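User: quick one, sequence for these tokens?
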């Protein structure tokens, strides 16, 4: 993903759409106006680039590649043309929406930290990690919808942290195979788990207890953040964020429905359930007034 792709912009966008379709929530829903979809897709493309460097690039090349991303962020915020195609797409969104620099830097920092810190002792430590790796995306989204001055940053942080914790529960087996454990160490010990439990073909009952605990914590964070966001976000921003919340709730339902057996087959949300959850999250104000 680092070099200029040998395909057209349209083909690149279709590839990005295929990646987005694997997410638990709609990245840039088709019902949103084109200007908002373009901004969300550009931010998603940047986040995917950074994640792919961390997950797929040769380990001895990751620091260098993240350095290239940092260099291109310098160019974007200095008003110069970046080298990487993903950053060129991002530059348009940055300038159109006056996006701040700090959240993008935090996403790169989080990826660097993920290479060095691969275990978390407490849930508080895990949420500190999410403050760099997830919360910045929500803050960018607030800017995309001109909602960054509405006092919603803390609520956005809660929702983004919840969504990432849910994903860590869902992907616990894959993360372990990649050398990382996001489930807090003190919770694993409390339930009598060892790290080897994450290598089993079927999730042991004791490990399911840890996953259920983290999922409940994520659900509480999701509910806590959703209420002020749905009350305070303007039209299209409210609709977009309700879709993210609905995806998180659908994934929580999938985890519960699968009895937290994430090792035999990671539970995926039911797409058919998403519209109903989306509408319930929006509530009685759904699609009424204030759309910008």
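Assistant:
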């Amino acid at each position: 993903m680092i070099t200029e792709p040998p395909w057209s912009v349209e083909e690149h966008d279709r590839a990005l759409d295929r990646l987005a379709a694997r997410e638990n929530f709609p990245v840039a829903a088709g019902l949103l106006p084109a200007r908002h979809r373009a901004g969300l897709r550009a931010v998603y493309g940047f986040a995917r680039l950074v994640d792919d460097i961390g997950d797929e690039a040769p380990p001895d090349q990751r620091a260098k590649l993240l350095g290239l991303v940092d260099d291109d962020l310098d160019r974007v915020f200095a008003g110069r043309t970046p080298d990487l195609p993903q950053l060129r797409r991002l530059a348009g969104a940055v300038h159109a929406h006056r996006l701040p620099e700090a959240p993008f830097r935090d996403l790169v920092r989080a990826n660097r930290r993920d290479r060095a810190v691969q275990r978390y002792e407490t849930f508080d430590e895990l949420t500190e990690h999410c403050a760099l790796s997830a919360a910045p995306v929500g803050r960018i989204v607030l800017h995309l919808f001109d909602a960054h001055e509405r006092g919603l940053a803390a609520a956005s942080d809660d929702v983004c942290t919840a969504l990432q914790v849910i994903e860590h529960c869902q992907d616990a087996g894959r993360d372990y195979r990649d050398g990382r454990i996001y489930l807090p160490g003190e919770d694993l010990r409390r339930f009598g788990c060892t790290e080897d439990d994450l290598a089993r073909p079927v999730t042991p009952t004791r490990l399911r207890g840890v996953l259920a605990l983290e999922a409940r914590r994520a659900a509480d964070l999701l509910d806590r953040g959703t209420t002020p966001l749905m009350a305070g976000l303007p039209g299209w921003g409210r609709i977009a964020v309700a879709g993210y919340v609905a995806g998180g709730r659908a994934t929580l339902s999938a985890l519960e429905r699968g009895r937290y057996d994430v090792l035999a087959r990671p539970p995926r949300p039911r797409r058919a359930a998403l519209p109903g959850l989306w509408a319930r999250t929006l509530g009685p104000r759904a699609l009424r007034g204030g759309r910008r």
